[in-house]
Design a protein that fits this description.
CATH superfamily of the largest domain: NAD(P)-binding Rossmann-like Domain
Strand order of the largest sheet: 3-2-1-4-5-6-9
Number of helices: 11
Low-confidence stretches: none
Helix content: 25-40%
CATH architecture of the largest domain: 3-Layer(aba) Sandwich
Distance between the termini: 40 Å
CATH topology of the largest domain: Rossmann fold
Largest sheet: 7 strands, parallel
CATH class of the largest domain: Alpha Beta
Radius of gyration: 19 Å
Order of helices and strands: EHEEHEHEHEHEEHEEHEHHHH
Number of domains: 2
Number of strands: 11
Bound molecules: NADP nicotinamide-adenine-dinucleotide phosphate
Shape: globular
Pfam families: NAD_binding_10 (PF13460)
Structural class: alpha/beta
Length: 279
């Protein structure tokens, strides 16, 4: 039995699908089973990673755990996992834990580092999956693209190597299923470094119409993000983080291909897979 946390999320949902497709029994943890909409073959259980006692029942009979990085409670969750006989844990972490520049000195990076530490100390066989920027972050531009041909935002020249969520799930599922990934820290990226302006223009190309990125000053961009519902502390962290990425080619890793045997999917492929979001 596999327990997938974050099972209704972008990555976890695909991990569920892949485990089921490979013929395995899957239990999925969600805070709201009534809204989860998971495949019928999945055993859906209620539980909140912020309340470790609610997760314990879900760990019974489980051999391997896909762990979503909820802050603050990894230690008791992993302790219970070990006591209940879970053998392997694969953590959805973030490549931001590797950054040392000033923009990475923030609460999100800190809690990912803390959870990684707890996983490493858990006594379970562990694998850390560290994706960089998700291609799905481009969905933040969807309302502006649906409404027109200009995306306004900060740091047009900030570079990243966006990764398709399927590639993250491909690596995580392999680490859950097969031995040989214990003690590995897998940094995952997409295949190419792209500025934010280039990403927006690629989306336009896929839509068949020009769309351009218009850089707005940092403070105005922050105000816009807050108006769009992003919490103020996350806005501040994002802006500080992105400022460090301007004009710096993003590192591209070979890990997706090393582990899965296929090259990472391109950003264009991601856009093609999600075109409906931008129409
Ligand atoms: N976006 C990026 O560029 C990026 C880059 C690197 C790493 N990451 C990492 O990836 C994560 C996002 O992954 P994602 O996009 O797959 O997730 P997502 O789509 O944002 O979904 C969040 C998932 O986590 C579950 N969850 C959240 N808090 C929970 C709690 N307290 N107890 C139980 N389940 C909880 C939710 O389940 P329910 O709502 O069903 O309970 C949902 O399935 C980030 O948090 C970050 O750690 C993101």
């Amino acid at each position: 039995m596999f327990l997938v946390t974050g099972a209704t999320g972008t990555v976890g949902r695909l991990v569920v699908d892949q485990l089921i497709a490979a013929g395995h029994a899957v239990r999925a943890l969600t805070r709201d089973p009534a809204r989860a909409r998971l495949p019928a073959a999945v055993e859906v259980v209620g539980g909140d990673l912020a309340l470790p006692g609610t997760v314990e029942p879900a760990l019974r009979g489980v051999s391997a755990l896909f762990l979503f990085p909820a802050p603050g409670t990894a230690r008791p969750v992993l302790r219970a996992a070990g006591e209940l006989g879970v053998h392997r844990v694969v953590l959805l972490s973030s490549s931001a834990v590797e950054y040392r520049h000033a923009g990475a000195d923030n609460a999100i990076v800190a809690y990912h580092r803390e959870i990684e530490h707890e996983v490493e100390q858990s006594g379970l066989e562990w694998t850390l999956v560290r994706p960089g920027a998700f291609a799905t972050n481009a969905r933040q531009w969807a309302p502006q693209i649906r409404a027109g041909d200009v995306v306004r935002g900060p740091f047009a020249e900030a570079e990243m190597a966006p990764i398709h969520e399927r590639d993250i799930a491909d690596v995580a599922t392999r680490a859950l299923l097969a031995p040989g990934h214990g003690g590995a820290r897998y940094t995952l990226t997409g295949p190419e470094s792209l500025t934010q302006a280039e990403q927006v223009s690629r989306i336009g190309a896929c839509l068949g119409r020009p769309v351009r990125y218009e850089e707005v000053p940092r403070e105005a961009a922050g105000r816009l993000m807050i108006q769009n519902g992003v919490p103020a502390d996350v806005v501040a962290m994002t802006l500080r983080f992105q400022a460090e990425l301007v004009g710096v080619r993003a590192r591209v890793s070979s890990t997706v291909e090393d582990i899965t045997g296929h090259p990472p999917r391109t950003f264009d492929q991601w856009v093609a897979d999600h075109l409906a979001d931008f129409r």
